[in-house]
Amino acid sequence: MKLLAKTNRIYLAFSLIIYLLTALAFYQIIRYLIYDEVESRLQIERRDFETYVRIHNTWSSSPYFVENKIEVAPVSQPPTSRRAFFADTLIQNRYDDELIPFRQLTFYVPIHGTLHRVSIRKSLIQTYRLIEAVTFTMATFLGLLLIGTFWFQGKLSGRIWLPFYNTLSRIKHFNLNSEAPLQLATSEITEFNELNEVLQKMADKMRQDYQSLKEFTENASHEMQTPLALINAKVEQLIQSEQLTEIQTHWIQTIYEASRRIVRLNQGLLLLSKIENHQFQGIQLIDLSQLLVEKLQDMEEVLSFKELTVHICSHDSFEAELPVALADILVTNLVNNAIKHNQSGGFIELDSSNEFLCLSNTGGTLVSEPQRLFERFKKEGTGTDSIGLGLAIVKQICDSYELSISYKETQGNHQFRISRLLPADSNKMIT
């Protein structure tokens, strides 16, 4: 969720709560004031009634009280309390049988020595209509105010945060391989300027470190290849010499194997560094399933030598976007791994669809932990011909180009499965 959307939702929820509480409080205040006015007028009617009874010592229907309805009835038994009280009541209209709300004041007055209960009522129809009109008007204005404030706040926030989104857009398109430095625009807001300054310094430092690392790896690889090639050439000459003893030949053979191992190690680490730094260009949509089939066909002699059988369960296209060179390396490492760790008379099985690519092979029981299989220099076995970078390179390629690779073993069947990352998984990796 975007920052502005999150802020607007919180602001809207808070405003709705405040406006509802305000509307409820306003309604209660209006109702209290109107009821207070009605009760005050009923109290005045009560005093007029008591004055009338005190002067005339009797009571009869009088036009003096035409404004309100009044009911006087003798009390057979004295009540426990003679205090006056107010209450709401409904009285049926004589004309249309409609129940009309009234506010009623009840009190007790002695007339001719007999205690009478007196109820004076005042209609609340106009009061209710007034409350409804005031409430509707208030709700309408508060709703319009809420909508207007929300709209204005959204426009204002969008304009205020525009420099931030401009900075974010330029950072997204910033590429360490590009020679152009990161250029961030200035803003009227101090905090955004400070943020841009920090990001500018970080980007410059990253470009400098990246260029230094890139030059170091290239120089180191280039400088190491020459002496290693010279060592291999001299060792090969020594091996072909007829004057060497058996022990000397064994030592020279060991040196030759170690130098070749260093060469492969140097090439593997350089390749990993280039993949991590995204130095491979020319991303294309490549069918990895077809490429894997072609690679298995190229290795037909090796497969026949190790008496391995290839089974293709399904051969649907599994396409991924990555450089051609890395696609070939990924497929080659998977096939080499399936052949190297297979057993005589075993099989290699390919299963692919639009959603996944699965390569399985027979082999011995896994010795190391499955989750550590893709770590660098993690080897399954003690053979000297492996440097432990093949699956690490595969994992790095998948991580760099929005692919995921998983491993599962089932009764000696080793399965490597490649699939596309879901958007949520891709965001987690970026985070």
Which key terms come to mind for this protein?
431 residues; alpha+beta; Helix Hairpins; Heat Shock Protein 90; 3 domains; 5-stranded mixed beta sheet; 4-stranded antiparallel beta sheet; 10 helices; 55% helix; disordered C terminus; kinase activity; HisK_dim/P_dom; HATPase_dom; EC 2.7.13.3; transferase
Report on this model:
With 431 residues, the protein is of the alpha+beta class. It has 3 domains: 3-157, no CATH class; 190-273, Helix Hairpins (Orthogonal Bundle), CATH 1.10.287; 281-430, 2-Layer Sandwich (Heat Shock Protein 90). 55% of the residues lie in helices and 19% in strands. The chain contains 10 helices and 11 strands. It has helices at residues 3-56, 125-160, 162-172, 190-239, 246-276, 288-298, 300-305, 324-340, 390-400, 423-430, and strands spanning 69-74, 85-92, 99-111, 114-123, 283-287, 309-315, 319-323, 347-352, 356-362, 403-410, 413-420. The strands form 3 sheets. It has a 5-stranded mixed sheet, with helices on one face. Strand 2 (85-92) and strand 3 form a beta hairpin. The chain is elongated, with a radius of gyration of 45 Å. Mean pLDDT is 80; it is low at 63-67 and 426-431. It catalyses: ATP + protein L-histidine = ADP + protein N-phospho-L-histidine. GO terms for molecular function: kinase activity. Pfam families: HATPase_c (PF02518), HisKA (PF00512). Keywords: Kinase, Membrane, Phosphoprotein, Transferase, Transmembrane, Transmembrane helix.
Report a brief summary of the structure.
One of its GO terms (molecular function) is kinase activity. The chain has about 425 residues and is of the alpha+beta class.
